[in-house]
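dumping the sequnces here before i forget
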Amino acid sequence: MTADTQVAGQSVVIKRRSPLLETWDNLRRSWSGMIGLTLIVLHLVLALISPLIVPHDPLEMNSKNRSVAPSMEHWFGTDKLGRDVFSRSLVGGRVALAVTVLATALAMTWGGLSGILMGFLGGWVDEVALRIVDALLAIPWLLVLLIIVSAFGTDAWIQTLTFGFTYGYTMIRVARAATLDYVTHDFVLSARARGERKQTIVLKELFPNVRDVLLVDGAMNWSWMLLGFSSLSFLGFGVPPPTPDWGYMIAINREILANQPWAVFGPALMLSTLIVGINLFADAFAKAMGLDRSQGAPV
Amino acid sequence: MTMLIARRFLLAIITLFIISLLVFIGIEALPGDAATAYLGQSATEESLKALREEFGLNAPAHQRYLTWLGNFLHGDMGESMARRKPVSEVIGNQFRNTVVLAVAASIFGIPLAIVLGVLTGLTRDKWPDFVLSFLAILGMTLPGFVTATVLVYLFSIRVKWFPAIAMVPSDASVSEVLPTIILPIITLTLVMTAHILRLVRTSMIDVLAGDYVQMAHLKGVPLARVIFLHALPNAMLPTINVIALTIAWLLGGVAIIETVFNYPGIGKLMINAIGDQDLALVQAIAMILAGIYVGVNLIADLLTLFLNPRLRTMRR
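..and the predicted 3d for all of it:
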């Protein structure tokens, strides 16, 4: 982006790098951010190619090989049904990743737009919507998730909608607060004075400014969603078996924790590296954007 | 000031009312009802009809909601359909068990978080900060069931120090319960410490950069005095709200840890109640947990107001 500025009669060209590149430059200097990003990329690549590279069929049971310890043949050993834990750990994050990534985009979109709209419109609409958001936030997150999946099922698409909705309303408050910082600024007032349509003001004036805050909060929410998804899966409300999923694997393999702990450590390691990776990245991303990440507990 | 407090109270009550409505609608959306969930496979037309009659499930939804609300306001939480007992009786001990767990974790977690938060804030970007901040990220982000499982492996399988599951009846006395729940307490303490530590650290760094702290340094005030009398009280102010949120969040998410350790608490009860579509029970648990959330936040807000004179004259 270049801007021409007249200074004392001569034209000075100020070269400004795009904000995206600037963020990237800042991010690159944070080693924890780079570790986080590396972990995320590794997991994404793995999710894409894992079915092609698994040493064993993740679903194949072997009654002669039940709960065996790690070996050259089975790196993480086998589970109670004789299935290869390493192969299952490799593919066990695919649904979780797909669901949470889509749901994050969904949450950012509807939560972000609702928040901006509330901040922009103000008045009784804002007041009523805020009360409902506050009420939703006060209900334990696990209860909300459990009620929705009990009502509509645990199919991956339903889970995507569930997480998109549930975590979206935590983002409403963030987007609304960010919007309130801007609605009184001159550029919004002048857009109103120009008689711009509300739609234009929201999308062209407010959204670009709130976007950074939303992205940072979205990154954070991604990790909370993964936590929520695995928790539901752990409790048996996840994607139906036999599809391997880390949360459910940890839950059922806990039975053989004493003699074959790797059946639990394998999926736990995969899940942990992804969640920690997202968090390290989100932290560094917030700093690179010049925003201090909100430190609140997940809701 | 009085107006402000009154306003906060009013908002809290409105929020609770909306919560009750939302939860009611949510449970209504579940397929089937308590009668089908209770009778399961053995359900016949007649038995379903009789049961629905008995629990007043035939009335239209809004009427049932109003009946529930009326009873609830009179302190009657209704009858658990799946358990055939008054809800208050079902919840009583399980709620106490969760409180025991949460209080024990808070007693260790909050002071630990403050001490470590101050330490990391003071040693910013040096190795103690580095190590503790990384551990905090782990504690905060790892799912409770992962942390709990690792602890079980280390402390009840490798070395047999603590029991892996809390084998207590729900009505055991507190002194009977405590020795069996050392691992759940440690798990909860870790998560809690991690959350609060990070905020105390950030807050501490902000405050330490403030003029009055610099001034105190320059005047030659001893370091310990600067930290504990000048910096810490100011650094604590913004953390009050997070401590409140953390406590409330722990109560909501504690179900997972209770399940891992098979501990008869309110979170585990909540999960079972949803499975049974035990409307009255789910409603009551939701109201209790949400009430704690709203209440704790209200207290935190008022405490912040009380401790920070500058906010008292501000509106909202």
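Residues 52 and 58 of chain B are 6 Å apart (CA to CA).
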